Amino acid sequence: MFFTISGFDLIVVLVLAFVIDLVLGEPPFAIHPVVWIGKMISFFKHRAPSKNRRIYGIFMALCCILFAALIGTVATLILDTESIPALVRYLVAAWFLKMTFAVRCLMDAGKEVYEELATGDLDGARKNLSMYVSRNTSKLTPEQVSSAVIETSSENFVDGILSPLFYFALFGPLGIIAAYVFKATSTLDSMVGYRDPQYLHLGWFSARTDDILNWIPARLSLIPISIAAILLRLVPSFSRSLDPESAVKIAIEDGTKTPSPNSGYPMAAFAGAMGIRLEKPDVYVLAARNPYPQFFHIKLARSLVLSSSVISLLMCASVLYIIMDRFYIL
Fold it and tell me: What are 113-131's pLDDT values in tens digits?
């Protein structure tokens, strides 16, 4: 397949997608490509046979990934059609790319929990937290509720922001397609990638593929997180709240302590950077020497997510700029 998409085109699309995400957030479900992918996964999931579930799970995953790749291909072809005005091509491609990551959504996750903890409404905070995490929230302490929100934000920084941008930059002219392939894999993992008896075999391929695709971005996440901590320390209100050196140190020490081979790295980096302990009861403890987080740490994590996302954007744009002369034939 031949494309004439340049590095400049891709950088423009990337920046526009980021702006669209921050300004508009998520669109209605009816016009959200990732929702379409999710509905396709649900279609296959509800028709899964009782036997040969692993083979069926592989077939389901490949079909959904192919569907996602077709969506990315449509966006790529539009971007590559010179008869369409450049501004229209950029906006359409940016809109499609934006659907693969969600900075604003991740920043807003747990906002209600923060407000309820700040006003002392622990029961309300527990109830709202249950929308974001799978653990039982009914008996969590305020510190454990704060920890769960920060764990969710930091873990999802990789698969919800960094990984799609990483694959977009890595594959150049095919970047939108690659971002959609990753997003389909991530969505499959979130819907069927569990280890319980119902999904153990059905979601095996999806979970393993997601682990593979997130392996490099999870470890690379230490770079934008630590750089973001360095830059935020220049702001007087954050100067005593963040430790970039500890972000890297704790991530290296505790990054392998979670059941997932990848989620521990960004979570431990956030814990180290903010000087807090993150804990899922009876499962893992990260940065055990640090004190438990308080509700105000949720707001600090929000700032760290945004700053790390901006750094990730600049890193990906730099990669595209450096190798843009190679973006003329594949």
Answer: 999 999 999 999 999 898 8
Q: Give the chain's length.
A: 330
Which amino acid is residue 57, in one-letter code? G
DSSP letter (8 states) at residue 262 = T
Q: Report in angstroms the alpha-carbon separations of 8 from 4, 74, 207, 309.
A: 11, 20, 35, 20
- Copy the structure tokens of residue 291: 């004190």
Q: pTM, whole model, 2 decimals?
A: 0.94
> What string of DSSP letters covers 212-247?
HHHHHHHHHTHHHHHHHHHHHTTSGGGTTT--HHHH
Residue with tokens 């590559």, as numbered in its chain: 80
Kindly tell me the burial class for residue 316, based on how many C-beta atoms sit within 10 Å of its own C-beta (0-12, 13-18, 19 or more).
buried
Token pair for 223 = 């770079």
Q: For residue 285, what is the enclosing H or E element?
A: strand 284-286
Task: Please give the single-letter amino acid code of residue 9.
Answer: D
